[in-house]
Amino acid sequence: MKQLLQDYATYHHWANQLLGQKIAEQDSALWTREVPGSFPSLHKTLTHIWDADRAWWNRLKKEPDTGPFPAFEGDIAEALGQLLVQNEQLIKWIADQEESQLNATLKYVNWKGIPFEQPIAHVLLHIFSHGSYHRGQLVNMLRALGVENIPQTDFIVWARMK
Questions:
Q1: Is the peptide bond before 70 cis (omega within 30 degrees of 0)?
Q2: CB of 53 within 8 A of CB of 83?
Q3: Is 106 within 8 Å of 59 (Cβ atoms)?
Q4: CA 50/CA 78 separation, integer angstroms
């Protein structure tokens, strides 16, 4: 299980970097242009991925959960840089864990004050599937904004390159 989680963490970082770079190559006006989706812009969708990753990171580290986080007002380079740093921390953290630690139960309270207990491995899989879901939305937003040659960020594409 540990190897699979390490692979997914590395994939998550790779996919965020690849798609984030494509967004960063675009005219900066597209960063905040409203486009239909769960979140109304590339900016808000990408920073939502980062916010979720940060929230789960705080929970995994058993640090105070300070969310919801204030709205991010920076540019794509800063948001992407912070997201990738967060992803790198998670990759290292997983590598440092024993298999038994990844199967341990995580107790946490969500932002609505509701307590939960779940295996850490399930939390990690949630982080990665959540990122994939919203990257799919980013792809649709980019297409709606007229962007072409959007890179494929499917797990199998990453696995073939590995």
A1: no
A2: yes
A3: yes
A4: 11
